[in-house]
Design goal:
alpha/beta; 6-stranded mixed β-sheet; 291 residues; globular
Length: 291
């Protein structure tokens, strides 16, 4: 019998990001997925409103958090994983290919030789197919590249947290044009996720609530097969990549990307303080072409 976790979703309207807490009702053990640390780019201020909402929910429901999980180093928001680890004492984890993302962005930002690229900022680096338990619910790690080269999904019973792979069916799928991304790899990932049982709930990383509808966070595998605007006609890899690449060429970079990757490649930590005790962010002038 497939286990069914209880899932609580939290939407960050500013970045269109979904954050999740799921737990096993039998043991009340749970995990956090992709928490958001708020960032005000005009003031370069770090805020914790989203993370505080998650803490309040955990306290009110009596969940014991045993893992804090990121699916990948996000480009559109800062991760609150390390902040929540300090508050809850739970370990934080991500896929093992994050070391490739660290090496890639180390070069883009020209970080010094002391910038670590070994994944040691996380307590655990998951391998594809690895399984761990949240209470009595088995969670399988599914390598899910395409949006980034390091992305993973977490399949927890009949729920799968698939981050920036699928959007909601009326929005299609996620972009694949960031450094290290690949529309062909994303297509393979989408097909792999669609091989899950039809009643699997796919919890997405983002929703931008098109046409004024309410923000939504999940649809089943069967619903995506039937109505996802990028996949319902069963496109070939070449057909999908053409659609995806043409669409991506029109999209601006996420507003917070150049700030977020400096934090997220450190597992949610700020850059080391300089001799005045303050941390600073770097901007690689001219690296990205205007769109």
């Amino acid at each position: 019998m497939t286990q069914s976790p209880i899932v609580k979703s939290f939407w960050d309207e500013t970045t269109g990001s979904w954050q999740y807490v799921f737990h096993d009702p039998a043991t009340m053990k749970g995990a956090i997925v992709d928490p958001v640390l708020d960032f005000d780019p005009q003031a370069a201020a770090i805020l914790t409103g989203n993370a505080q909402r998650i803490l309040s929910y955990i306290a009110d429901t009596g969940i014991e958090i045993v893992w804090i999980l990121d699916t990948h180093p996000h480009a559109d928001h800062l991760t609150a994983a390390h902040w929540l680890k300090d508050k809850l004492g739970a370990p934080q984890a991500i896929g093992e290919m994050v070391t490739g993302v660290q090496r890639l962005w180390k070069g883009i930002y020209n970080f010094g030789e002391d910038f670590p690229t070994d994944g040691a900022a996380w307590d655990r680096l998951w391998a594809d197919g690895e399984c761990f338990m949240v209470g009595e619910i088995p969670v399988t790690v599914m390598f899910s590249p395409g949006h980034t080269l390091a992305s993973v999904s977490y399949v927890a019973g009949d729920a799968a947290f698939v981050h920036d792979t699928f959007m909601m069916p009326d929005s299609g799928t996620s972009r694949a044009d960031f450094p290290g991304g690949s529309s062909a790899e994303l297509y393979a990932t989408l097909m792999r996720i669609l091989s899950l049982p039809d009643d699997t709930r796919l919890y997405v990383g983002h929703d931008y609530a098109p046409d004024g509808r309410a923000a939504a966070c999940w649809a089943t595998v069967a619903e995506h097969k039937a109505s996802n605007i990028h996949l319902k006609d069963a496109p070939s890899e070449d057909e999908y990549c053409k659609i995806r690449d043409e669409r991506d060429a029109t999209l601006p970079l996420p507003k917070l990307m150049l700030a977020a990757l400096q934090i997220n490649t450190r597992g949610g930590r700020m850059p080391p303080a300089e001799d005045n005790g303050r941390s600073y962010l770097k901007i690689p002038l001219g690296y990205f072409e205007p769109r």
